[in-house]
Write a structure and sequence with these properties.
By secondary structure, the chain is mostly helical. The chain has one domain (about 5-160): Up-down Bundle (Ferritin), CATH 1.20.1260. It has helices at about 5-35, 35-65, 85-110, 115-120, 120-145, 150-155. It is elongated and about 55 Å long. It binds MU-OXO-diiron (FEO). MU-OXO-diiron binds next to helix 1, helix 2 and helix 3.
Length: about 170
């Protein structure tokens, strides 16, 4: 049985993962309409992954005799200044999500819920990976500069999830 506070914060996280998925989906269509095929594929894959994260939380809450609450859809921004700003926003968003996961760990410890504390480690590790892959993209983007965006767009195809709209 989940402690009430753990159930509540996991439901908040369900909403955040759902929003992450919507945000990346919105960025993906924006990039697609700007002609960035590689970037949009990467973002479509990322949107799928966030949905998987949300489902993982939903199933866990229900399995532990909690009640997972499916949130309403919050409209993400539809326009992004440019590719540089968009990826800075992705990184800022992932840092925000990492902070949320840390808060969940803190609540688990306060509530003596060592089962969820152990389970949520998957998300802790996932956030390390996500932040580092976005940082690698930003490094590459800065290295190539705004005159080589076509090359960057080709290059991102070979990065995680870049080539096809699959998720892990
Ligand atoms: Fe599910 Fe990218 O955080």
């Amino acid at each position: 049985m989940l402690p009430k506070k753990v159930e509540e914060i996991l439901n908040v996280q369900i909403e955040k993962e759902d929003y992450s998925s919507q945000l990346y989906l919105s960025m993906a269509t924006w990039a697609e309409n700007k002609g960035f095929e590689g970037v949009s594929n990467w973002l479509y894959s990322q949107a799928e992954e966030e949905r998987i994260h949300m489902l993982k939380l939903v199933k866990y809450v229900n399995e532990r005799d909690g009640v997972a609450v499916i949130p309403g859809i919050k409209k993400p921004p539809a326009d992004f200044q440019d590719i540089f700003v968009a990826f800075d926003q992705v990184l800022a968003h992932e840092k925000y999500i990492s902070g949320s996961i840390n808060e969940i760990v803190a609540v688990c410890i306060a509530e003596n819920d060592y089962t969820t504390q152990s389970w949520i480690q998957w998300f802790v590790n996932e956030q390390i990976e996500e932040e580092s892959s976005v940082k690698a993209i930003i490094d590459k983007l800065n290295l190539l500069g705004k005159n080589n965006l076509y090359m960057f767009d080709r290059d991102i195809m070979s990065m995680r999830g870049g080539g096809t709209a699959t998720s892990e």
